[in-house]
Amino acid sequence: MPRQEYEIIVVNDGPVDATVKTIANHHEVPLFFQPQRGAAAARNLGAKQAQGEILLFTDADCVPESNWIESMIAPFADQEVVGVCGVVRTRQTGLVPRFIQLEYDYRYRNIARHSQIDFVNTGTAGYRRQVFMDSGGFLEDLLGAEDAELSFRLANAGHKMVFVPQAIVYHSHPASLWEYARRKCHYSYWRMIVYRGYPRKAVADSRTPQTQKIQIGLFFLLAVALIGSVLWMGFVWLAGGLALLFLSISLPFWWWVLRKDSGVGLLIPLFLLVATASVGAGVIAGLTYHSVLKLKRSELTDGRC
């Protein structure tokens, strides 16, 4: 696409860093600053400055392919389409990034089955600007999962969003298990906050495989059984059965990964354990937050504090 047909807007969220030096070499690219308020606020600021009818978002750790813009805007030829989600890939070769990419690819298999989707990942996202602005944009109180919240909000309003596998960005996935677990926990915590407003999405959405949600439930039961085994040996058998059930539910994904990448496939039990434990920790934190917030509101309503 000719350069004069699109604009690039960069928003720096927080302290001055290498972003400023990079943009200084590109005088035609406007750079906006804001105090550190999070990605949602930064994206909203960029959207307010945009002049075009279509907004495309990507992240600082993403590199779009040369045809990304053309691929992203093509579905907007259908006037009913208000949101578009592309594909995240990686060029990293480490075991952890390769596993993360396979997680993404497995989800894309699920997404591709839907003619309409209810989740747009902001690493490669497109919206009609008018609809985006009319909806209020990203919810700035959220410091994670703001893409899920906006997607659910637009879907609930009856807007059409679609998946475009030809629109690719290359992302830097976490390189270590610790960083992977930390991000999983952080995102699942904020997803729980989002689910408070969209409880039906906690049951099913176009992105998350149902097996993942079952695995989280089994993980909680397994943890309880292991703790209970200290008091009664019968729980050891229960824990063993739950562990086997967890692995059996994981078999389709495990077999799919083995065919794609045998090196990663051999470590699937470890990766799944870390992933499920991290998501479970985020879920517990999110539920705890809900409970505490509900209690405080109840006390305020009752006039006890």
Keywords for this entry:
13% strand, Spore Coat Polysaccharide Biosynthesis Protein SpsA, Chain A, alpha/beta, 7 strands, two-stranded parallel sheet, 11 helices
For the largest beta-sheet, the strand count, sense and barrel status come to:
5 strands, mixed
Return the CATH architecture of the largest domain.
Alpha-Beta Complex
Number of domains: 2
Strand-residue proportion? 5-15%
Mean pLDDT: 87
* Weakly predicted, low-confidence segments: none
Order of helices and strands: EHEHEEHEHEHHEHHHHH
**Helical/strand content category:** alpha/beta
- Indicate the radius of gyration in whole angstroms: 21 Å
In whole angstroms, how far apart are the ends?
Answer: 60 Å
Strand order of the largest sheet: 3-6-5-7-4
Kindly state the number of beta strands: 7
Task: Give the proportion of residues in helices.
Answer: 40-55%
Give the C-level CATH assignment of the largest domain: Alpha Beta
CATH fold annotation of the largest domain: Spore Coat Polysaccharide Biosynthesis Protein SpsA, Chain A
Q: Give the assembly state of these chains.
A: single chain
Number of helices: 11
